[in-house]
Design brief:
By secondary structure, the protein is an alpha/beta fold. It has one domain: Ribose 5-phosphate Isomerase B, Chain: A. Strands 2-1-3-5-4 form a 5-stranded parallel sheet, with helices on both faces. Helix 4 links the parallel strand 4 and strand 5. Helix 4 runs parallel beside helix 5. It is globular, with a radius of gyration of 15 Å.
Length: 153
């Protein structure tokens, strides 16, 4: 799978671990920064990763900041993005199974590496269940389409 990866300074250390795991598991990683722990504004680095998902340049993305909150806020502004902010294995699994989340947001200052690794693996391996969930996501897409006036992917 081809995935975008981005973080601000608060998620930098965990981003580097996520990058190594993804590569170890055979995924292609497009690292969109940051490349050091110097302070940056999270919209500047998360936006391009979310845009890559929105445009179909990558299948999914992982975005990180200190808590994951800011990263998820930015990512969910992009058409077609369904970013799930997760803090445990259950929400990572449900984000895929019920919401077909194409971006995973995590907090570098909130999660330990062991839990983050397990969450990432579950998020990558869990398929979308479809059915009633697809109907609900269709309604979300209709809202997005109305708000954007027909603009979007």
């Amino acid at each position: 799978m081809r995935l975008a990866l981005a973080s601000d300074h608060g998620g930098f250390t965990l981003k580097e671990a996520v990058k190594a795991w993804l590569q170890e598991w055979g995924h292609e990683v497009v690292d969109m920064g940051v490349h050091n722990p110097q302070p940056v504004d999270y919209p500047d680095v998360i936006g391009p990763a979310a845009a890559a998902v929105s445009r179909g340049e990558v299948e999914r993305a992982v975005v990180l900041c200190g808590t994951g909150i800011g990263a998820s806020l930015v990512a969910n502004k992009y058409p077609g993005v369904r970013c799930a902010l997760c803090h445990d294995i259950y929400t990572a699994k449900m984000g895929r199974m019920h919401n077909d989340a194409n971006i995973l947001a995590m907090g570098g200052r909130v999660l330990g590496e062991g839990l983050a690794k397990e969450m990432l693996k579950v998020w990558l391996e869990t398929p979308f269940e479809g059915g009633r969930h697809a109907r609900r996501l269709g309604k979300v897409s209709e809202i997005e389409h109305r708000i954007l006036g027909g603009k979007g992917p």
